[in-house]
Amino acid sequence: MGSYVLGLQQIDREQVAIVGGKGAHLGELARIDGVRVPPGFCVTTEAFERIIENAPELAGPLERLAKLNPDDRDAISEGSAEVRQALEAIVIPDDLAAEITDALVAGRAYAVRSSATAEDLPGASFAGQQDTYLNVLGAEAVLRHISRCWASLFTERAVTYRLRNGFDHRKVHMAVVVQQMVFPQAAGVLFTADPVTSNRKTAVVEASFGLGEALVSGLVNADNYQVRDGAIVDKAISAKQRAILAVEGGGTEEQAIDADQQEQAALTDDQVLRLVELGRTIEARFGGPQDIEWCLADGEFQIVQSRPITTLFPIPEAVDEKNHVYLSVGHQQMMTDAMKPLGLSVWQLTTPRPMAEAGGRLFADATALLSVPKSRTSFLAVVGKSDPLMGDALETVLSREGFIQMADDDGPGEQIPGAAPATIETDPAVVTELIQHSEASIATLQREIAAKSGSELLDFIFEDIEEMRRILFDPRSHQVFTAAMQASWWLNDHLQEWLGEKNVADTLTQSVPHNITSEMGLALLDVADVLRTRPEVIAFLQDVEDNGFLAELPELAGGEEARAAIQGYLDKYGMRCVGEIDITRPRWSEQPVALVPMLLSNIKNFEPGAGQRRFEQGRREALDKAQEVLERLRALPDGEAKAEETERMIERVRTFTGYREYPKYGMVSRYFVYKEALLGEAERLVRAGVLDEPEDLFFLRLQEFRDLVRTHEADRELIQQRKEAFRTYESLTPPRVLTSDGEAVSGSYRRDDLPEGALGGLPVSAGTIEGRARVILDLAEADLEPGDILVTAYTDPSWSPLFVAITGLVTEVGGQMTHGAVIAREYGLPAVVGVQNATRLIKDGQRIRVNGTDGYVEVLDASLGEMSD
Questions:
Q1: Which of 122, 539, 815, 851 is 20 to 30 A from residue 4's alpha carbon, by CA?
Q2: Which range is least confidently modeled, 181-185, 340-344, 850-854?
Q3: Whole-angstrom distance, CA of residue 504 vs CA of residue 629
């Protein structure tokens, strides 16, 4: 065979650039002992490139296609159709046509399948985006369908996918696989890991009669088998009313299956087990779980495709072969996005407990806590109270007999944060001392780091991280917010028992002192007050798009004062940003333009002095509620004692609750000091030719960067690999609970007290509110009006300035003491968190009711769709 045609036996998985993803995988499959692959060949990408190069009429349409917005469906439809028609009209040159037809076996039917160079790769599955043609007869028909495969690179779906995922149309080329047709009795798909639960030890087989296209296209309900440890653990035989079969003369058609055959199994149990064994062999060859298309003909399995399952969340590496249970750190920290390597390493250096990595996220191994009866009980109680979905998921794992081996009952167990009673006295001076110590330490850091560079700088940062840990994990600090949590739980439990009122602590903790995060939202209202009397400044800010606007403000009337107000805000809060636990994320001080929409919204929606009034209103409501509760208690039997104890708890919760948000503020303040110094060092390395750009730093662990500073030797290939891996990780959704089998375990609320159609969640801030839902996934796109209810995946401190404008909160992630819950209570906003799929089930603009007392959300107007701007 010539340069444009390669037999499958000549191909391996390293030749993606020549034969595309599908062709490379088929070639590799053909090399595995015991795996049968239908004979055939690949028309290489060189043939496609030759066609494109000799078609100057395609240059313009391809250029226009590359510039389209992935949401502009009409333009994509028109542009992609133009390219497809042009490609199909091109006549294949005689020498290329001859090379292809010489590889055909006379009288045989063929399957002609597209194989793109960006298809079936570990990080990007383009499955089904290009075309497959079955039972193609004759050389002329094969050539015609090869042209159609080339054109299928430009279907609307494929073009949109590439635009969304950053693939250049002009750099993705098409090969074509041509294989002899198999006419199977049965066909289907084998997943070597469960695509629903992600369990790597469970294989799933789907089977139907005839060609597999009936299953892939959704024409039939397939038989379904689940296989684990060499045994079928579950199976469901479906009524298969139709099949797709080859037609004499070429092509395929749907045919009805005889009624007496419809409920027969397409495979025997032995065949299912044999197929899974074959799948494990293929999985071992490719080094990861596979999605395999198979055919059964004459009692033998033939494999017609294998691609990686790209939707599975990676498994953390374990130090042993035992079973492990991992908890998502991101769900506890309200940051479930992927983190870059520098961010992961700095967070790991910060935390006291070792953390495993997977998919750009961190996970805590809870196996040891769950293995000892004493710690298991208290751990499940604490987790279940703060995040019921995580708690229920853990219960699901523990219900599987033998997955976690229990240690002896007399084991000491591990101390669970929040489980032991806080013994600290209710003394406001403790909080002020902790804050003053942190602020003084940060001031010392800022002063001393300025003189450091090179290896001395990196050594200094590692030393200061230990200082940060001493402050973060000061036993008094933990006692303070543990005392706040326990006092809140005490108030809710006892006042519900004594007065029949739920979640009273939510009102009692409004406008407490020292809550740095809620103060941040109110402080932005104060900045808006400075700007609102300066019309030139407001007009200027309406059109601001870049981060240099602060330098331009002094040129405007009132601009000096406006700049001073914004800069003052940044001096105190500029280290904050979305996803702030990742040191690599851009901070407000680096991107101050992020504050502009929130400032303009505050000017538009609030009157002067709103910040102070808001705080005072919350404080008054809390004090009035305290007075009311104490009066009602005194009227009860033994009321004086109950009131006295309750008053002590109210004082305790109001003294300590505000501090809950401070340790993270201190931590991210240090992170920003580190980041500025590290970027300065990275810029010096760029000037020295060691790094290509300063941000390459973000794809090295802190320990690796220290070595790089010392040696001036950068592994550019490693940095590039990590950039590509990060892009893959960004598309993954981390589970709350993950096992060492790879199973992503979802919890549920298991409640029967919800109104019909309501979405259940965790009540974290009492009250009921109705309003317009604003479904916002990107803080930069927030456009809120007073009375709106914010619906989002999660919030962190950077979202706090929005809380002043809303009347309620719904999030998909969160617990009793996570950011959104704390600030919602501080501002008196009804809030429900942990509402699964809230951003998909609630449409932007719908009217909803949020019950933050009982923990559910109702959609009141199901007819409204997404809002138009």
A1: 122
A2: 181-185
A3: 9
Spatial contact of 840 and 733, defined as CB atoms under 8 Å apart: no
Per-residue confidence (pLDDT) for residue 79, from 0 to 100: 86
CA max distance for the chain: 102
SS3 readout for 696-731? HHHHCCHHHHHHHHHHCCCCHHHHHHHHHHHHHHHC
Q: Other CB atoms closer than 10 Å to residue 269's CB: what's the count?
A: 13
Rounded to an integer, what distance in angstroms lies between the CA atom of residue 727 and that of residue 338?
9
CA distances from 78 to 73, 85, 171, 717 (A): 9, 11, 21, 39
Distances (CA, A) of 743 to 199, 312, 369, 393: 4, 9, 19, 11
Of the candidates 25, 145, 173, 819, the residue annotated as catalytic is 819
The answer to whether 765 and 785 have CB atoms below 8 angstroms apart is no
Q: How many residues does the chain have?
A: 869
Q: Is 100 helix (H, G, I), strand (E, B) or coil?
A: helix
Cβ neighbours of residue 292 closer than 8 Å, sequence gap 6 or more:
189, 190, 191, 192, 279, 282, 303, 305, 306
CB contact at 8 A, 497 and 629: no
Full-model pTM? 0.85
- Express each pLDDT in 381-427 by its tens digit: 889 888 999 999 999 999 988 899 888 665 555 566 666 888 999 99
Would residue 494 show up in a list of annotated catalytic residues for this protein?
no
Contacts made by residues 363-366, CB under 8 angstroms, sequence distance 24+: 363/316, 363/326, 363/327, 363/328, 363/329, 363/738, 364/326, 364/327, 364/329, 365/316, 365/324, 365/325, 365/326, 366/325, 366/326, 366/327, 366/394
Cβ neighbours around 274 below 10 Å, total: 13
DSSP notation for 510-566:
TT-TT-HHHHHHHHHHHHHHHHHT-HHHHHHHHT--STTHHHHGGGSTTHHHHHHHH
174: helix, strand or coil = strand
> Virtual CA dihedral for 342, 343, 344, 346, nearest 10 degrees?
80
- Closest by alpha carbon to 578, among 733, 339, 333, 779? 779
Coil, strand or helix: which one is 858? strand
* pLDDT given for residue 8 in this prediction: 93
Point out which residues pair with 772 in neighbouring strands.
847
Question: If you average pLDDT over every residue of the chain, what do you get?
Answer: 90
- What is the C-alpha separation between 818 and 813, in angstroms, rounded? 9
Q: State how far the Cα of 552 lies from the Cα of 548, in Å rounded to an integer.
A: 7
User: Which residue has better confidence, 166 or 118?
Assistant: 166
User: Which residue(s) pair with 765 in the sheet?
Assistant: 831
- Give the number of C-alpha atoms closer than 13 A to the C-alpha of residue 115, restricted to the C-beta side: 33
Integer angstrom CA distances of residue 662 from 128, 484, 540, 573, 819: 50, 13, 35, 12, 11
85 alpha-carbon distance from chain centroid: 38
Q: Residue 470 has which token pair?
A: 């001493």
Q: What is the CA radius of gyration of the chain?
A: 31
What is the pairing mode between strands 252-256 and 325-328? unpaired
Phi then psi dihedrals of residue 131, to 5 deg: -100, 155
Residue 260 pLDDT > 60: yes
Q: Which residue has the tokens 């479906």?
A: 238
Residue 849 clears pLDDT 60, i.e. is over it: yes
- What's the rounded Cα separation, in Å, for the pair 864 and 842? 10
- SS3 state at 794: coil
Number of alpha carbons in the 13 Å side-chain half-sphere of residue 337: 18
Q: Which amino acid is at 786?
A: P
- Mean pLDDT score, 677-696: 98
DSSP state of 13: G
Per-residue pLDDT, 53: 85
The lowest-confidence range among 106-110, 175-179, 663-667 is: 106-110
